[in-house]
Structures are given as C-alpha cells and as structure tokens.
Amino acid sequence: MDKFANLEAFVTVVECGSFSGASERLDVAKSAVSRRVGQLEDQLGSRLLNRTTRRLSLTEAGKVFFQQARQVLMDLDDAEQQVSDQQGSLRGLIRLAAPLSFGYLHLAPVLSEFMQRHPEIEMEVSLNDRYINLVEEGIDVAIRIGALEDSNLIARRIADIHLVTIASDAYLQQSGELKSPSDLQHHQGLEYSNLPRGSRWNYRDAQGHELSPIVPCRFRANNGNLLLTMAIDGLGVLKSPLFICGEALRQGQVRQVLQAWEEAPKSMYAVYPPGKLQSRRVRAFTDYLIDRFRNTTGWDGGEVPDA
Fold it and tell me: Given this structure, which CATH class describes domain 91-160+266-300?
C-alpha cells in the first residue's frame, strides 16, 4: 500500500470536488483514484467522504483528516524544495494558465527563454480566455488581467495594461467620427463576450469628467484577436488592449479614437491557488515574468502613431 499515493488521491479529490477531476489532475484512471481513497479509509477504519450520485462531501472525520493530510503533503513538498535549493538548479513541472491572445502574442518567447535558461524545467501551458478554477485544474500559477474576483487568490502584479478605442477608416467614413463617448450610443460596438452583455464602456477625460455609455454591439466574441479582425474589416468600434491592437495601429489598419478620453490602466497579475506552498521554480518564473514585462513599450506604449 502506497500511503503517499493514497493521501495524494484523497486530498486531490477534495480539492477538485470529484473523482473524475482528481483523475485528470493526477493523470491516473478514475478507478485507481477511488481505490486509493478506499484503501486509505480502510487503513484508518473511518469513512472520510460521503458519496452520492450528485456530490461528494467530507464526513466530520474527513474534515479533520483533510487539513492534516494536506499539511503533510505541503511539508513534503517543502522538504523537496529545500533539497533542490541546495543543488542550485531549477527543476520540475510548472503548470501555467494564461489568456489566449496574450499567451500567443507575447508570452511564447518568454517561456522559450526561461526554459532555455533552465533545461530541467518542464511546463504545461493552458491558453484560454475563460475563467478557470486553479485548484480544480491543478494550476501552479495563472496570468490574469483586470480586477481579481476571487479574493482568496495570492497575487503579484506584473504590469499595467492600457486599453484604447479603435476603428477602421472605412468604418468611420461610413458611420461618422466619434467626438465624445456619448457618440458610441449611435455606433456599432464589438464586445468581449466574457463580459456581461450590455456592459458599460468607461471613460474619463483630463478634467476628471466621466462617461459610461452602453454601446449597441453587433458582434461578440471571447477572443481579442478575432474582435480586432472584425474592427480591421470595418464592422464596428472596439475597445482593445494595446498588446493586441498595437501592431494594427502602427500599420494603419485601424486608428485610435476618443484619445482625449481614456480608461484607467488595468493590472496584469500572476495569481496562485490559496493555501498552496509556492515552489522555488514557480517563484523564479514569476520573478522572470515581472522582469521581462516591466517595460512594456514594445507592445503597450509610445510607438503607436498619433491619429
């Protein structure tokens, strides 16, 4: 009987909320996870989980044992890290989640550089614009942009993200120039579908006046690059991060409008699951991200021409 494997299976089932979720994270068959938890219960002589067809829940004994078991696994991981620290090199697996457009456009070369510097590092990267549960999906660190809805997450700020309002010349010639955010009510917007439908577009001018119009949106999508393509093709007005649209602005495929009005920059964070010990390799990777993206003028600054 492998006590460690049984402990790991039990803790992972609780964190994921299901045997199938634990099976995916541990990369073993669901039947094997169930068998390991059963062996642990037999060893302890106590049921740890209430199993129904709809959900799992901890028994009273399970609640007590879960906290102790998770601490044992964290202490073991800590001991392994200390040994690794003495050896000097970074090694092991980092599971990373990041927004699709940012990952494809700007994160890929940074990952390549980091792995070339640390040849014993392995990485699994999930690029997706949807919200994911870091604990359930076994993510070590995720990159998120904007307000953090989950206050339990541990976060480190990486950089500012600036948004601009853009449209193609063809669209503006057909639909008219925008002089104020209020004009957006008479235009067609292109909207990020992971935001609530009908969200307000927020603006502030240099005098502190604020306007937040609701923009009629003809097209919604969950990917910024697709929205940019629609803007280039003249289908509407788009509020886009400069890290997505900066190159299109430089090439004149779209131009910035409402330059006297802006939205406060959003922050990009590295976030970690709560209650999980951060390994030296994850800390080193996050330090590398912060260092590489500290100066973002290559995709988020002054190289964009004036309209």
Answer: alpha beta
